[in-house]
UniProtKB/TrEMBL annotation:
HAMAP family for the chain: Glycogen_synth (MF_00484)
Record has Disulfide bond as a keyword: no
Name assigned to this protein: Glycogen synthase
Pathway info: Glycan biosynthesis; glycogen biosynthesis
Catalytic activity: [(1->4)-alpha-D-glucosyl](n) + ADP-alpha-D-glucose = [(1->4)-alpha-D-glucosyl](n+1) + ADP + H(+)
Domain spans labelled Starch synthase catalytic: 2-232
Gene3D superfamilies linked to this entry: Glycogen Phosphorylase B
Enzyme kind, highest EC tier: transferase
Similarity annotation: Belongs to the glycosyltransferase 1 family. Bacterial/plant glycogen synthase subfamily.
Signal keyword on record: no
Its job: Synthesizes alpha-1,4-glucan chains using ADP-glucose.
């Protein structure tokens, strides 16, 4: 079975969020199951491309509207990621240093999808499955069926994976002239509320779509930034498959980025060594429980609640705890956190930005990880945390509800879940966690239990392959 994954993110080539982690791991695990899985991404002027050797495997020319675009397809020569990685390079379009935030993103992603189809037309054999990830490549299922030059792909099965349904790639119809010529009788498949909507087009035209958790699949029926009715009407071809984690990279037994490796059997000792090392570096006390937050400063992550949560927790003299934040984003949220550095200099620290190595240190050192998300299609941070014996404190939404079981309400639990996206509920959950930590024996039992859970990609990759098989049958 030949499967092509198309995405604008892939770790470690280019990472902004969890999309990159999924695309950088899932194909490798699928190859372990005998699937010939490839990844195709845009070219980026980043360290990865500078540090690796690439071979030019194809060159071509196509028109985007009246503009002639020349492109090259580059293959990473040694398959260092565990799967074939192909990059599409288009001067002036797909050759930039960042993934997002350019004013001509619509033109970029149209060019990426068109170049892929133009290249694929030269192949001797068509792929069995094309798995498209998020709206940036959401036009492909439509173009493969209805674009004049690419109808030979109409029989190829397409799977569309929704990583976040809030972002849909809307563009005005004046961009329609940039698409490859298509059957204009089918224009309605591209349209939603008078705009070209790549996410909506993908859901309409794909053979199956997946979400990154079962819970998020159901939530999209109720809240999907205007597409709720579409997700309900197309629900027969929807599948919720929880994301996995790459246990070769996120594993305290193997992790080269932490101070002390450890396993479940010696989790208490291992985490203590890591906490002492980390807290000394960050100017935090080494003898208090450590609560951490890692993520974007965005409303959907509940990051606007952080200043109030931190104030409520640290101003209560009964709460013996320190807090560390790793993230970036909204300037107002960042300003609020900076003010708290002056108010609680000995028990609160923050690193603005994202640092992959530092994130590993945080998971190994922290006792608790806070995720007060309003929207969380899957969430990977809670899975990383549990692998490192760090108890998650999460709002019960999306994939967080699917993966975290509250220890106070279930004898098999291993985390803490709260209902509402507000500081009061979050602080109550934090206080419950601090109380649970007072019993050392119970704490270690919870840590060992969560470290033994299987959230690896092995299980999730098998579910994807099962879906592919169903489509091909």
């Amino acid at each position: 079975m030949h499967v092509i994954h198309l995405s604008v993110e892939c770790f470690p080539l280019a990472k902004v969020g969890g999309l990159a982690d999924v695309v950088g791991a899932l194909p490798r695990y699928q190859r372990k199951l005998g699937v010939d899985a490839w990844v195709v991404c845009p070219y980026y002027d980043k360290r990865f491309t500078a540090d690796h050797q690439f071979l030019v495997v194809y060159e071509g020319i196509f028109y985007q509207g009246s503009e002639q675009l020349t492109y090259r397809v580059l293959k990473e020569s040694s398959d260092t990621l565990g799967f074939p990685l192909y990059l599409i390079h288009i001067p002036g379009k797909l050759d930039r240093s960042e993934v997002y935030c350019y004013p001509d993103e619509a033109e970029q992603w149209i060019a990426f999808q068109h170049a892929f189809l133009h290249w694929a037309k030269s192949w001797d054999k068509k792929p069995d499955i094309v798995n498209c990830h998020d709206h940036h490549v959401g036009l492909l299922p439509f173009l493969m069926k209805y674009a004049d030059d690419y109808r030979m792909f109409a029989s190829v099965k397409t799977v569309f994976t929704v990583h976040n349904g809030q972002y849909q790639g809307w563009m005005s119809w004046n961009k329609g002239i940039l698409l490859p010529a298509f059957d204009t009788w089918k224009w309605g498949l591209l349209d939603w509320d008078g705009l070209i909507n790549p996410l909506a087009a993908a859901i309409k035209c794909c053979d199956a779509f997946t979400t990154v958790s079962a819970g998020y699949l159901q939530e999209l029926h109720m809240e999907a930034n205007g597409l709720e009715g579409l997700f309900r009407s197309e629900s027969a071809k929807g599948y919720g498959i929880i994301n996995g984690i790459d246990t070769l990279y996120w594993n305290p037994e193997l992790d080269q980025l932490i101070s002390e490796k450890y396993v479940a059997a010696n989790v208490a000792e291992g985490k203590l060594v890591n906490k002492i090392s980390f807290c000394k570096k960050m100017g935090l006390p080494t003898d208090l429980p450590l609560l951490a937050f890692i993520g974007r400063f965005a409303l959907e992550k509940g990051a606007d609640l952080l200043p109030q949560i931190i104030t409520q927790v640290l101003s209560n003299p009964e709460n013996k705890i320190s807090i560390f934040i790793l993230g970036s984003g909204d300037a107002g949220i960042q300003a609020g956190l900076e003010a708290l550095l002056l108010e609680y200099p000995k028990r609160f620290s923050v690193f603005f930005g994202y640092n992959e190595a530092l994130a590993h240190e945080v998971y190994a050192a922290a006792d608790l990880l806070l995720m007060p998300s309003r929207i969380e299609p899957c969430g990977l941070n809670q899975l990383y945390a549990m692998k490192y014996g760090t108890m998650p404190i999460v709002r019960g939404v999306g994939g967080l509800r699917d993966t975290v079981v509250d220890v106070d309400y279930d004898s098999d639990g291993y985390g803490f879940v709260f209902a509402n996206a507000d500081s009061a509920d979050a602080c109550t959950a934090i206080e419950r966690a601090l109380k649970k930590m007072q019993d050392t024996r119970t704490l270690n039992e919870i840590r060992q239990k969560e470290m033994s859970l299987d959230f690896s990609w092995d299980k999730s990759a098998r579910q994807y392959v099962k879906l592919y098989d169903q489509l091909l049958d």
